[in-house]
Amino acid sequence: MMAYRRVALIGLGLIASSISHAIRRAGLPVTVTGHARTGATREEARRLGLGEIHDTAAGAVRGADLVILCVPVGAMAGVMEEIAPALEPGATVSDVGSVKGSVIAAIRPLLPEGVHFVPGHPLAGTEHSGPAAGFAALFDNRWCVLTPPADTDPRAVAALEAFWQALGANVEVMDAEHHDLVLAVTSHVPHLIAYTMVGVADDLSRVTESEVIKYSAAGFRDFTRIAASDPTMWRDVFLNNKEATLDILGRFTEELFALQRAIRLGDGEHLRAYFTRTRAIRRGIIDAGQDTAAPDFGRAAQPAPAG
Amino acid sequence: MMAYRRVALIGLGLIASSISHAIRRAGLPVTVTGHARTGATREEARRLGLGEIHDTAAGAVRGADLVILCVPVGAMAGVMEEIAPALEPGATVSDVGSVKGSVIAAIRPLLPEGVHFVPGHPLAGTEHSGPAAGFAALFDNRWCVLTPPADTDPRAVAALEAFWQALGANVEVMDAEHHDLVLAVTSHVPHLIAYTMVGVADDLSRVTESEVIKYSAAGFRDFTRIAASDPTMWRDVFLNNKEATLDILGRFTEELFALQRAIRLGDGEHLRAYFTRTRAIRRGIIDAGQDTAAPDFGRAAQPAPAG
Ligand SMILES: NC(=O)c1ccc[n+]([C@@H]2O[C@H](COP(=O)([O-])OP(=O)(O)OC[C@H]3O[C@@H](n4cnc5c(N)ncnc54)[C@H](OP(=O)(O)O)[C@@H]3O)[C@@H](O)[C@H]2O)c1
Ligand SMILES: NC(=O)c1ccc[n+]([C@@H]2O[C@H](COP(=O)([O-])OP(=O)(O)OC[C@H]3O[C@@H](n4cnc5c(N)ncnc54)[C@H](OP(=O)(O)O)[C@@H]3O)[C@@H](O)[C@H]2O)c1
User: Fold this and answer.
1) B140 touches chain A (CB under 8 A)
2) Rounded to whole angstroms, how far apart are CA atoms B126 and B128?
3) B230 in ligand 2 pocket by Cβ < 6 Å?
4) Closest Cα partner for B199 from A7, A185, A163?
5) CB B202 within 8 Å of CB A277
6) How far, in Å, is the centroid of ligand 2 from the Cα of B40?
7) Where is the Prephenate/arogenate dehydrogenase domain (chains A, B) (predicted)?
8) Which of B17, B46, B98, B104 has most ligand 2 atoms within 8 Å of CB, for mutation?
């Protein structure tokens, strides 16, 4: 049985919109309320029927037993300050931020007495943003990581866990510091590298942009999807997961230099051995249902739609 | 009208197999012959009906008016030595190698008098290899780059161009050195970076492999497809396109260090500006029909098949 009857979404972008769609799809007996900073976003959310959209954050959270902060990581504290006075005793505050340590550090001091805080991060997204980008299936078979501080009421955690499962996700609980390291590896550094590679291609004068675009199917293209993600969201991720990002980045450049050296010296054995090792992880990801085994993700077989 | 009546494929992996399927799909009045080094590959090619499979390379090329070398870049010279005595005067030798400068340097001295040489590279592939991985649509709407040396007979180039167009590809002619630089940007360095990132993830003791796999959908997963490509093929690419790869890699690490520094110093403006710039290229790739605009390549909407 769902513990919540009124769920408030603060920030109405891709993630909040997908939560709203997924609640409706699941048929949960829940009223969804919402608020976004700008009028245009609120209007769009109303048009999309995402829920009862309020002009103030405080209005949206009043009476809610679950409040999910769906704004960029660097905006969490400001939003929390705004809603704190309107929160109901016994309500749960959660979030969907891609970094957990810094969000916890920013939110906890602002929590009113008697309000639970269960930070979360659904590991599901696309390169698109804004309310129109959301869809009900976004969380299906994806993981949602909860990182409750040690003194959190286990019932509040269990209730949020059931909520995410109803939305299609699998839930895992871990501590925030470990989350931030795991995500540095599986998400943050990959995004930084993809952005860098696309930036380099964009910047070369000897190879034109139209050549890069034309010949992108040879590998480059796979990077451009994640390098098209929202700049504000990603700025905030890197500023807020600085330590783990720099740590993994250090490992990355160390390994890259070793491969670079092998290329320079013509050490084919080193290269081949390295490239062989990396295939097992791909296999594991497909077996775990986190990607499709279709060649080229099945893209090659279907011509790309125009536009 | 197709200039060729007998096309020999030397090496029977993903690319050769796809050429054979695409010839059949196009209904070209052409006999396909083929040869692969190992008996098992030849057997598989026979089972797949890829053409008249010969036990020797010389046998496959005898009487052919087009011979396409479909082996790893480092194996081109050896194969060319083997077939040279059996080539027909007036025949065209081509290849599909991912590097062009070094292949030309290796092949040209071995060309018999009266045989044309039109090097080529279809910019289409998947992460799978071997004859069973081939399919007729692989080249559809993809580019095939031809890099004929300056003294090549234009009729030989035009005939090969028509051949690739019949297989579904668009053809572009450029010089080999420029090809190798363009491919370093759009393919070779992206592959090296993807291999490195997957290697780093595989190597961390603080984050387990099962965690990496579980949480890969957050971005990492996009890298693993290209990092699952054939190790031998890629070893040969890097050994043979050393100069351009190291050149672009130098640019990449320079930019990466600048972003790393911005993270360390908390320079959010630098990060946001960089991440904004890279979105235009993605848009261009989608508009050019080289990728799909479906979120997450359309993967998210369809659950991944098992296996
Ligand atoms: N996209 C992903 O792949 C993904 C995956 C998992 C988690 N997340 C996390 O989910 C959160 C939201 O991401 P999203 O993809 O849904 O973003 P989005 O589509 O860009 O939407 C962001 C929302 O936050 C609001 N917002 C932005 N800056 C704000 C500020 N300074 N103060 C108040 N509101 C502000 C925006 O309001 P306006 O429209 O009114 O400006 C918008 O409604 C982020 O913390 C992100 O780290 C994202
Ligand atoms: N895969 C791509 O994405 C892609 C895209 C464009 C171009 N290319 C280029 O296409 C060529 C073939 O790639 P592919 O993907 O088709 O490879 P593949 O599926 O791995 O097949 C390679 C073929 O070459 C043969 N071969 C390997 N080493 C050899 C050697 N030392 N001597 C003789 N034959 C040898 C193999 O024979 P056995 O099976 O008998 O060992 C096999 O038949 C490469 O030059 C590659 O750079 C690849």
Assistant:
1) yes
2) 5
3) yes
4) A185
5) yes
6) 15
7) 5-293
8) B98
Pairing of strands B170-173, B143-146: parallel
Spatial distance between the Cα atoms of A174 and A163, rounded to a whole number of angstroms: 17
pLDDT tens digit string along A225-266? 889 999 999 999 999 999 999 999 999 999 999 999 999 999
In eight-state DSSP terms, residue A36 is: -
Q: Is A91 touching ligand 1 by the criterion CB < 6 Å?
A: no
Rounded distance between C-alpha atoms, residue A137 and residue A124, angstroms: 10
The answer to whether residue B33 scores a pLDDT higher than 70 is: yes
Architecture of domain B178-266: Orthogonal Bundle (1.10)
As a whole number of angstroms, the distance between CA B2 and CA A291 comes to 41
Contact A244, B289 (CB under 8 A): no
Q: What interface predicted TM-score (ipTM) does this complex get?
A: 0.92
Here the tokens at position B126 are 């998947």
Q: What is the pLDDT of residues A53-82, one digit of tens each?
A: 999 999 999 999 999 999 999 999 999 999
What pLDDT, in 10s, does the model give residues B245-255?
A: 999 999 999 99
Average of pLDDT values for B247-269?
98
* Per-residue confidence band for A49, with pLDDT thresholds at 50, 70 and 90: very high
Q: Is B138 in the pocket of ligand 2 (CB under 6 A)?
A: no
Q: What amino acid occupies position B54?
A: H
The answer to whether the CB of A43 falls within 8 A of the CB of A37 is no
What letter represents residue B28's amino acid?
Answer: L
- Ligand 1: nearest atom to the Cα of A129: 19
Q: Which of B135, B226, B255 sits opposite A222 (nearest CB)?
A: B226
Q: What is the pLDDT of residue B31?
A: 98
Cα separation, A235 vs A238, in Å, equals 5
Confidence of residue B293 (pLDDT cuts 50, 70, 90): confident
* Best to test chain B binding among A96, A174, A193, A265 (most B CBs inside 10 Å): A193
Report how far ligand 2's centroid is from the alpha carbon of B224 (Å).
20
**Rounded to 5°, angle at Cα B263 from A196 and A101:** 115
Helix H or strand E encompassing B117: strand B116-117
CA distance A216 to B182: 10
Q: What are the residue boundaries of the structural domains of chain A, listed by start?
A: 6-174, 178-291
**Could you tell me where the beta strands, DSSP code E, fall in A113-236?**
116-117, 120-122, 143-146, 170-173
Fold of B6-174: Rossmann fold (3.40.50)
Confidence of residue A1 (pLDDT cuts 50, 70, 90): low
Say if ligand 1 is within 6 A of residue A12 CB. Answer: yes
Residue of A nearest to B291 (CA): A304
Domains B6-174 and B178-266 belong to one CATH topology:
no
CATH architecture of residue range(s) A178-291 = Orthogonal Bundle (1.10)
Q: Residue A252: which of B200, B229, B301 has the nearest Cβ?
A: B200
